[in-house]
Structures are given as structure tokens and as C-alpha cells.
């Protein structure tokens, strides 16, 4: 499997950062999470004057074989229909990228449809959807490597263009199912605590989803060849999810900040962190969504999301909504005056 060179940022600069934050003309700690964010950004960038440059959003699409088992309220054709909609600027992700100045890249990693007539989509299709993991692995080792390497290359391209903060989103009907199983296996949690209604299953639909995922997990546990993180990722993941892992790990390797979206992208960060724990130093968790188990999964990584807006759209929209808070933290440490320059008595 592809190797990544990821290190926890050097903590030696931390006292200097803290001193600068504490001497801004405000009561000590009065800007709360913004001060914590500023500290994280400064540590990642190893500077007292951080910047946010050329933010990029990767929206990766892929279909899932498990969707054939009726585990989602939406049919798989919605994946390609939405991908086309994104090219016309009509999605939620388009709106937020425009609002916050993100360069949006739409990537076909494994959509079960010919999207070649749409030149604004980047075409990196591994296959037309994964295999059905109810009966066997979702992808081969070669397909996993291809998806991860593609995600990595996409981030290297962003970094070469000057990007230092990355957001990743997904489009793939049925992808809460692999996310739930990843959460269970990688977080050592009972599967039932990890399964939610996805895009809106009713009670009978949720019960059916639970039965299917339990059967798939039981089959995996009885037939698996090993218990590595890589095997869990390969057996259940989607091409868009594995691509996201490769993107996140490469962003950390390049010293970039990573905005993490909802349930599916949090599952990808969980998988990435089980491979390379240091990746969490670069992660900013945008929000806690409505999917059952999302808060629990965040707790597995000691993650504190910035927002809780009841979002469950995916696409990276929750992370994009959190971006202005990161920008505010950077403006705080760069633009607020300090007590000495403002000639204000330090009152703490």
C-alpha cells in the first residue's frame, strides 16, 4: 500500500504562539475556540503569521454495490444525476464554494454512469461502482491503490497551485453503509450503535439496513484473511471514500489544513488516522451531522466539531460552512492589536 510521510507538527513554537494570542487586546481566553483554532493553524504552518491560500474542495463521486440491497432511500442514479447538477452550479456544494471562494473540483472516481460528455468533471473512474460487499470485498487491492493514488495526486495538484487548506466531500448513494461498518470495526463498537437512517430511511427501512449490514459484517468476520486496517478499508469502502483517504493523508504530508465534513468524511478521517495517527494534527472537524453515531465517531478521535447545524446533505457542505470560523481565527491572530501597541493597560 502507498506510503505517506506524515509527522506531528513541531511543538517548539507553541509558547511563542500562545504568548501572541494572550497579548492580543482582549481578556485572556475570551475568544475561546478561535484561539484554539489559531494555535492549530500556526502549529501546522509553523509560523506566528498564518495564511489561508487558494482553498480547494474535492467533490469525489462513486457508487456502491451494497446499494443493490435496498439500504438507501435514494436509488443509485441520483449519484450521476447530482454529479451532472454540480457541473451546472446547482448543488449545495456549489453555493458554499462560491460563497467562500473555494476552487471546486468535481471528480468521477467510480460513478455507475458514463460522465465523459461533461468536460468539467475530472475523469478518474476506477470502475462503475464497487462490488457488493454483502458477498465479498468491495474492491481489489489494485483498485484500492488506484483510488488512493488518485486522491493523492489530486491534492498534490492543488498544493502545487498554492492551496494550503483542503476540503473533501463525497457523492455516492449508499455510502453511510460502509461508513457504519468502518466505524464499528475501526472503533471497536457494536454495529447497531453505528447505523443510522442515512438520507432518510423510515423505521422498516432502517431495520432492513441493519439486517443487511449485520449479514455483511458476519460474512467478513468468518472469511477474512487478516484484520489490518487496509483490509477493512478495501472490503467495505467506496472508491470515493478511499480516494478521500488518499487525499487527506497527502494533504497532511504536504502540511495542509484539512476541513472534515460529516459522517462519511469523518469515517474516512477515522480510517486515515488508524493508518497514520499524526494526520489528526491537520484535521479541523467542521460539524456534527444528524446521522446516528456521528458524535460517537468524533469522540473516537477526541474531535470537537465547530458546528452542529443538523446537516446531513454531505458533499462537504458542513465543512465549507465552518470555513469562515477558521478564517476568523487567522484574522484574529494577524489583525488584532496587542496591549502594548494599542496603549491599553493589560487587565488580566
Characteristic terms for this protein:
six-stranded parallel β-sheet, 348 residues, alpha/beta, 13 helices, 9% strand
Order of strands across the biggest sheet?
A: 3-2-1-4-5-6
Please work out how many helical segments DSSP would assign: 13
Beta strands, count? 6
How many strands, what sense, and barrel or not for the largest sheet?
6 strands, parallel
Poorly predicted runs are: none
What gross morphology would you assign?
A: globular
Strand content: 5-15%
Overall pLDDT? 94
DSSP helix fraction: 40-55%
Distance between the termini: 53 Å
What integer value in Å does the Rg equal?
20 Å
Topology order in helix (H) and strand (E) letters: HHEHHEEHEHHHHEHEHHH
Structural class: alpha/beta
Notes on the protein architecture:
- The chain is an alpha/beta fold and 348 residues long.
- It has 13 helices and 6 strands.
- The protein has helices at 14-22, 32-45, 77-87, 92-100, 141-160, 176-187, 203-223, 229-236, 239-253, 263-275, 294-300, 317-335, 339-342; strands at 56-62, 103-110, 121-123, 165-171, 257-260, 283-285.
- A 6-stranded parallel beta sheet has the order 3-2-1-4-5-6, with helices on both faces.
- Helix 10 links the parallel strand 5 and strand 6 (283-285).
- The chain is globular and about 70 Å long.
- It starts with 13 loop residues before the first helix and ends in a 6-residue tail after the last helix.
- The model has no long low-confidence stretch (mean pLDDT 94).
Amino acid at each position: 500500500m502507498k506510503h505517506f510521510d506524515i509527522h506531528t507538527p513541531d511543538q517548539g513554537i507553541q509558547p511563542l504562539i500562545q504568548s501572541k494570542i494572550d497579548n492580543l487586546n482582549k481578556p485572556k481566553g475570551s475568544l475561546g475556540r478561535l484561539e484554539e483554532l489559531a494555535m492549530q493553524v500556526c502549529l501546522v504552518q509553523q509560523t506566528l503569521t498564518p495564511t489561508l491560500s487558494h482553498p480547494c474542495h474535492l467533490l469525489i463521486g462513486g457508487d456502491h454495490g451494497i446499494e443493490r440491497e435496498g439500504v438507501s432511500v435514494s436509488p443509485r442514479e441520483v449519484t450521476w444525476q447530482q454529479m451532472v447538477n454540480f457541473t451546472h452550479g446547482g448543488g449545495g456544494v456549489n453555493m458554499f464554494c462560491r460563497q467562500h471562494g473555494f476552487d471546486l473540483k468535481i471528480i468521477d472516481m467510480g460513478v455507475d454512469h458514463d460522465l465523459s460528455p461533461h468536460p468539467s468533471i475530472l475523469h478518474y473512474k476506477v470502475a462503475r461502482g464497487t462490488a457488493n460487499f454483502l458477498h465479498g470485498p468491495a474492491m481489489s487491492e489494485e483498485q484500492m491503490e488506484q483510488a488512493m493514488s488518485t486522491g493523492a495526486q489530486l491534492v498534490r495538484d492543488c498544493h502545487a497551485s498554492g492551496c494550503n487548506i483542503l476540503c473533501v466531500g463525497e457523492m455516492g448513494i449508499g455510502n453511510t453503509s460502509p461508513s457504519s461498518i468502518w466505524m464499528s470495526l475501526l472503533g471497536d463498537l457494536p454495529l447497531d450503535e453505528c447505523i443510522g437512517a442515512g438520507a432518510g430511511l423510515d423505521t422498516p427501512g432502517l431495520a432492513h439496513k441493519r439486517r443487511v449490514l449485520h449479514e455483511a459484517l458476519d460474512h467478513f468476520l468468518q472469511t477474512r484473511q487478516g484484520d489490518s486496517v487496509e483490509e477493512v478499508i478495501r472490503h467495505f469502502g467506496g472508491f470515493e471514500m478511499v480516494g478521500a483517504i488518499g487525499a487527506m493523508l497527502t494533504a497532511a504530508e504536504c502540511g495542509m489544513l484539512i476541513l472534515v465534513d460529516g459522517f462519511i468524511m469523518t469515517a474516512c478521517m477515522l480510517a486515515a488516522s488508524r493508518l497514520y495517527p499524526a494526520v489528526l494534527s491537520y484535521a479541523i472537524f467542521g460539524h456534527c451531522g444528524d446521522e446516528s453515531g456521528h458524535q460517537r465517531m468524533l469522540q473516537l478521535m477526541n474531535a470537537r466539531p465547530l458546528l452542529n447545524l443538523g446537516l446531513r446533505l454531505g458533499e462537504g457542505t458542513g465543512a465549507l460552512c465552518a470555513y469562515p470560523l477558521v478564517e476568523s481565527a487567522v484574522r484574529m491572530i494577524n489583525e488584532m492589536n496587542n496591549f502594548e501597541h494599542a496603549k491599553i493597560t493589560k487587565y488580566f
